[in-house]
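Consider the tokenized backbone below.
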């Protein structure tokens, strides 16, 4: 066989010898200019139609993108080498060598292109900065405003949860808070994904003790697919753990109970008349009247104690009253009492809120 270019005898590819072949025929082409888009906010690189984490330096991702931009014809394999040189701000000159191999013959082709580095904003970052939302979580308390601690804790937990979801293995990049609005004595979060809204409402209901109701609303169509938004209401009861509520019996008599814990859809109460534990469905306790918080407790001097019965000095009327105790453990000099209607109820010495929480989860 001989070369139709120079006449030399020897192995040929498409009738050319190995040195003539690349001069007369190219098997690899590359556009004179290649544009590379990176996100100004998250530094992701546009790779096909997806924004991916391919590195932060052009040397980490430009060679890959150039290799994919090559158009190779003819049979055989190739390996690609890319050398980059800065020419000016946001412009790189890429020198590309493609080593080809076909039927045991090897040759190299040399190309070059101008790489234009463009800064853009990826889809998620534009949503993040553009008030986009797919889920609204409303936190409300029944018959009262959310208190300062509930406000502080719920915001802290929401921020922590979004960070966790964004960085966790599932990597919900749309786990972000696009708006947080105080509303009707509560808070409204507007979140970037429906799953982050579900996770937040579950967390708030679990930790603050609330009931969740969820609805879904259609908010548009994109590429023939219906788009939905979640609206979740987390409703807290009128009381918090440690507060006191009144419960009316069938005869219309109201009695005081301490709220021991609210969890798992149940409210655990302590009957202050006999210190019995009572468990009620949370939904059935949302309208209970809160009669006192721990700040409303009074201190009473213990006059005497005999077994599970004690005499206390009424802090308001300075008369001596008799109360039943949960046990015959010694009381000490003073106890905390709750005044409800005309009576005093011993609170200190009763099973604590923390004890009861451990009981209810056991
Ligand atoms: Zn030749
Ligand atoms: Zn981005």
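A designed sequence for it:
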């Amino acid at each position: 066989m001989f070369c139709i270019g120079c006449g030399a005898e020897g192995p040929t590819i498409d009738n050319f010898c190995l040195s003539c072949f690349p001069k007369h025929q190219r098997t690899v082409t590359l556009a004179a200019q290649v544009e590379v888009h990176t996100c100004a906010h998250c530094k992701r690189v546009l790779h096909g139609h997806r924004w991916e984490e391919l590195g932060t330096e052009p040397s980490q991702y430009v060679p890959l993108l150039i290799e994919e931009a090559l158009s190779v014809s003819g049979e055989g394999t190739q390996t690609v080498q890319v050398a980059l040189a800065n020419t000016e701000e946001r412009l790189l000159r890429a020198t590309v060598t493609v080593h080809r191999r076909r039927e045991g013959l090897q040759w190299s082709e040399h190309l070059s292109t101008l790489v234009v580095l463009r800064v853009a904003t990826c889809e998620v970052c534009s949503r993040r900065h553009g008030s986009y939302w797919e889920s609204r979580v409303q936190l409300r308390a029944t018959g009262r405003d959310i208190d300062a601690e509930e406000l502080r804790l719920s915001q802290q937990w929401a921020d922590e949860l979004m960070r966790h979801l964004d960085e966790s293995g599932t990597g919900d990049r749309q786990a972000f808070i696009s708006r947080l609005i105080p509303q009707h004595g509560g808070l409204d979060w507007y979140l970037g994904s429906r799953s982050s809204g579900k996770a937040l409402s579950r967390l708030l209901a679990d930790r603050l003790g609330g009931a969740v109701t969820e609805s879904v609303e259609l908010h548009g169509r994109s590429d023939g697919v219906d788009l939905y938004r979640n609206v979740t209401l987390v409703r807290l009861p009128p009381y918090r753990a440690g507060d006191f509520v009144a419960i009316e019996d069938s005869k219309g008599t109201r009695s005081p109970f301490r709220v021991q814990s609210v969890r798992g859809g149940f409210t655990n109460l302590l009957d202050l008349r006999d210190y019995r534990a009572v468990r009620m469905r949370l939904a059935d306790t949302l309208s209970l009247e809160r009669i006192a918080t721990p700040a409303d407790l009074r201190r009473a001097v213990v006059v005497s104690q005999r077994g599970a019965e004690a005499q206390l000095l009424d802090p308001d009327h300075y008369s001596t009253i008799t109360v039943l105790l949960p046990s015959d453990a010694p009381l000490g000099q003073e106890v905390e009492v709750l005044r409800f209607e005309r009576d005093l109820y011993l609170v200190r010495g009763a099973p604590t809120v923390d004890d009861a929480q451990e009981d209810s989860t056991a």
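Residues 148-167 form the longest helix (20 residues).
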